[in-house]
Fold these 2 entries.
Entry 1:
Amino acid sequence: MLATKAWIYGKLSTDASVLSAFTDTDHVTDAYPEKVEVFPLLVFMDKNQADMEYGDNAPVMSAQSFEVHVFTKLDLETTTNLSIPVYDLFRSLDFSCTMNGEVPDPVEGVRHRVMRFSRELFPSDLI
């Protein structure tokens, strides 16, 4: 198993564009909160890490999927603009965006965008 979650957190928490959009690392988390109270908020989760390509009876590659949630109380344009640096970072790491959509919550007045990214990773990719 590769330490992809820590690798992605390191990338998200040091990327200047992501930090600019989300204020600081207090607005970037790897755990879905019971209630979203900090805005804007970036939540990323390791959705799947399947073993692939075996050598000497051990996996040498992983098929990795991440899910990213962006929350804001602002308008649709702002939610989209907050999502762009996250999208760009994952794309720069050769992830494919497999889902990208809005999940509005008009009762709470929260804008919520969900994105999913996937790719196959070798240990040497985690630099």
Note: The domain at 4-125 is CATH 3.30.70.1700 (Alpha-Beta Plaits).
Entry 2:
Amino acid sequence: MAALPASTSQRFQPADYRTAPDWFTGRFLTQLNLFVNPVYLALQGGLNFQNNFNAQVYSVQITAGSYTANTLSFQCTLSGTPIGVILISKYIVGSLATPVITPVEFSWYYNTGLIQITGISGLTPGTNYQLTWLVF
């Protein structure tokens, strides 16, 4: 994200609205500035997924086996307990142009800081896959 221009102000100043009624320069601008200040600070710091969402992306290469053999676990870096895990990317290693057209499903649970993937279906046994999950 591009930086804010140097001319951007953090607050609306009552002096800039000399002809406005008192309710506008008083109550309204005070309340508006309560909203504008945090937004300004957020934009100055840059809004991006990693810094503004409690989420984790985890990628791994696996050689597929049966559903019950397709297991793995990884450390959860979220603050708090995760509420969801989504498979966001799947492809065959060394063959990006070949789509994985079968639905890939998995089961998971969270236990003492670890995400446990207890089974993955829809993968061809013996094939190497790159899988990427989003934990939130």
Note: The longest helix spans residues 22-45.
